[in-house]
Amino acid sequence: MPSNEGLGLGVAVAGRTRTHPFRVLVLGGSYGGLGAALNLLDLCNGRPARFSSDQVQPLNRGKIPVDITVVDERDGYYHLIASPLAFASAAFAPKVWTKFEEIPALKNIRFVRGSVRSVDPKSRRATVTVTGTGTGTETETELNYDFLVAATGLRRVWPVVPQATTREGYLVVANAQIRSVRDAQEGVVVVGGGAVGIEMAAEIKLVMPAQKVTLIHSRDKLCSSEPLPDDFKDTCLTKLREAGVETIMGERVLGTETETVEENGAVRSRSTLNLSSGRTIRASEVIYAISRSLPTSQYLPATVVDEEGYIKITPSLSFPEEVSNSQYHFAVGDLTKWSGIKRCGGAMHQGQYAAQNIHQLMLQEMQGTAPKFMELSEVPPMICIAIGNQAVAHYPTQGTKVGSDILQLFFENDLGNRICWDHMQLGKEFPETVAGEATL
Ligand SMILES: Cc1cc2nc3c(=O)[nH]c(=O)nc-3n(C[C@H](O)[C@H](O)[C@H](O)COP(=O)(O)OP(=O)(O)OC[C@H]3O[C@@H](n4cnc5c(N)ncnc54)[C@H](O)[C@@H]3O)c2cc1C
Fold it and tell me: What is one GO cellular-component annotation here (predicted)?
């Protein structure tokens, strides 16, 4: 673990030498944030960036001293996209949350558990409410930085994602949810037929084949708010029904009445859902997968974001030019205003580009080289949804594809847990550390 020295005020730069490492503050330790931190660690150690496809060595293989701090509300890496399986399988749930301190690849990165409250680009200082001190109290701290990467994603509600910030707390709620679904005597209803609702319904049915699972969607087509072709949406519906999920399409849930009933000595809740057609549906467990997820950018000045709160990045992922010190500020992942459906692959890709561009700026400062920035292209709509034992994908070059081979390719049998872990090389610890004197 690096020392805390790098967070102090003042960085002395004298020509090509620095007396302190570059301080890089990454807000959010998920796909985008970890992608940025790990690729930057590679480059500063003279290795090719781990996400770089050509694996060409950087031109200058010298080391650049860097001190990376990641701030996250959670105490670990949570493989978010496997939530639908994690909330259906007690055997799987523990596998998707790994404490940062137990991840070999992150040994040379400092973690602060806390919530970012404000960022002042002009003074390059962030204020963080620190929660993970072990004392049970919150403290406020200021972190100074040379470069910032904002990667705090979207605020999503329960039960789409756990609200717990510790692994222990997450396991308590995940296991309670799994019990509720398993014991739902009158079945489970999932409200909302977007990608998340489809996967939640399908994973419950996959893990608990005897359970009655019904998905209700207000439109005639699934994924109705996504700019995807009808053949993709129709294939999702066919596969969902084949997986054993009952579907009610084109009906809105107007209200839900919940009562508690006693059955065989146990107290259970039972809900009655009133639908727009006048029909009523009974269920023991109702899962809402319809809430809009909102950007977590409240800690940034208004000039950085659009009217919805998405960060207005340039193609090289930096903050908009009108923001002070914009060249030292980057944003990646779901939080950014960029084309394409929000995906973890996109977040990781953006993390790599931000790392390469920060590295270019470091080289400029230390060697006087002209920076060559990686720039994002426009991203067409693309998606892949796991539906039981199959997956349905839509990619612009290949159109709609479906099958168990597609599931294997994109998710394997753990909703991409192994794939993402290995892509980020989280299990691999590099021996070298980059804090210290520059060797350039
Ligand atoms: C159920 C579900 C299934 C999905 N399935 C897929 C899929 O199959 N394929 C796919 O490509 N994408 C999928 N997605 C989308 C994918 O999860 C996102 O695109 C991806 O998580 C974005 O990564 P990110 O790093 O930008 O943000 P996130 O993964 O949201 O991470 C943000 C991090 O920032 C932290 N944070 C937030 N606010 C603060 C704050 N103020 N201070 C400190 N820390 C903070 C959070 O704790 C979190 O660790 C799915 C999403 C959901 C919800």
Answer: cytoplasm
User: Do 129 and 238 share a structural domain?
Assistant: no
Pocket-testing residue among 80, 339, 383, ligand 1, by greatest number of atoms within 8 A of Cβ = 80
Tell me the sheet residues that pair with 336. 311
Q: Which of 377, 399, 426 is the last residue of a domain?
A: 377
Supply the range of the domain harboring residue 319.
4-156+293-377
Q: How far apart are CA 191 and CA 200, in angstroms?
A: 10
DSSP-assigned states of every residue in 405-429 = HHHHHHTTTTTTHHHHHHHTTTT--
- 81 C-alpha vs ligand 1 centroid, how far in Å? 8
What is the mean predicted confidence (pLDDT) over 356-381?
A: 95
**Residue 266 pLDDT level (bands cut at 50, 70, 90):** confident
Q: Considering 256, 289, 322, which residue would you say is the last residue of a domain? A: 289
Domain count, the chain: 2
Measuring from atom 42 of ligand 1, which residue has the nearest CA? 115
Distance 433 CA to ligand 1 centre (A): 28
Distance 335 CA to ligand 1 centre (A): 9
Per-residue pLDDT reduced to its tens digit, 325-366: 999 999 999 999 999 999 999 999 999 999 999 999 999 998
Q: 261 alpha carbon to ligand 1 midpoint, in Å?
A: 37
Q: Which of the 8 DSSP states describes residue 21?
A: P
Identify whether 421 is part of a domain.
no
CATH of the domain at 180: 3.50.50.60
Residue 276: band (very low, low, confident or very high) from pLDDT cuts 50, 70, 90? very high
Binned at pLDDT 50, 70 and 90, residue 14 comes out as: very low
For the stretch 287-301, pLDDT in tens is 999 988 999 999 999
Same domain, 113 and 194: no
Q: Residue 355 region, left (φ>0) first, then alpha (ψ -120 to 50), else beta?
A: alpha
Report pLDDT digits (tens) over 95-120. Answer: 999 999 999 999 999 999 999 999 99
Say how many CA atoms lie within 13 Å of 152 toward its Cβ. Answer: 27
Cβ–Cβ < 8 Å for 394, 400:
yes
